[in-house]
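Recall the central idea of this unit: under ordinary conditions, the amino acid sequence of a chain determines the structure it adopts. In this exercise we apply that idea directly, starting from the sequence alone.
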Amino acid sequence: MTCPGNYAKGPTIITQGPEIHQMSAGMTTAALSRKKAPIIRITAEAVPEQAFKDLFNGARLYELWIRLAYHDIHQRFERSVLGPLWLTLSMGTMVATLGLVFSTLYQQEAAKSLPYIATGIIFWGLLSGCIHDGSTVFISADSFIRNVPMPLSVHFYRMMARNVMVWGFNMVIYFIMAAYFALLPGLDTLLFVPGFILFLINVSWISLTASVLAARYRDVPQVITNLLQVLFFLTPIFWSPAMMPKRPAFVVFNPLYHLIEIVRAPLLGEPVSAMSWGLCIAMAVIGLSLTAWLYRRAHARIAYWV
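Accordingly, the structure predicted from this sequence is:
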């Protein structure tokens, strides 16, 4: 090819390199559209569905949170001689001490006072343990929440499973008491199964509510710790309402007392009052509704709060 003009002193040869394939604008758009990832739109209407899916998907991973709960207990008592039986031993020592004191002060029979105190303290330990640990469950799992893609509810289920395992070790005390004092099971004992299910339902929504509020407001765990200490003495755990000529209002309208009563009375072979059943069922219905509303609103924000 010859360059025209005065600057061309001779023929100039332009060699063409390897052919460069260029795509037209239409072809480029078509190729990119095939490679685009699907667009996920997060709307306000989808938030409640995601929160409930989180609870459902977390429950389906039961093998994971059961193993994690077992690992928590195993790690706590690693290289210990008695292992988790230290929980049973410490609880048994407390029950024996309180039973000795109250049976001596109030001239009560040990056959009645010891099983009553044992069952009260065992189930109070489960209730207070779930609520106390629930107030820090998301805060203590902040690194997992930020870095591991798993449902948030896995951490909650892990905490509940760990406390139920601890309760299982403590129930050895009750069976020893039942064998020693010849507490024979009767028809009322069968009510323990629905009572325990209702007990866990109420404890679960209280714990989940505490976990969400504590993730947002860091003073909540301290408030719960102090509140549980006060309620321990206001609730008939180691003392009986029968000791009073008239039941005060803090006993009659104490929801924790009725929660303890629906599981303690059947194990002692005693009937459960209709008021206790009705109050606990009402608590479960109202509490689950309020907790579902709270978790639905807070689920998407928990990862930012912790």
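Residues 1-27 have pLDDT under 50 and may be disordered.
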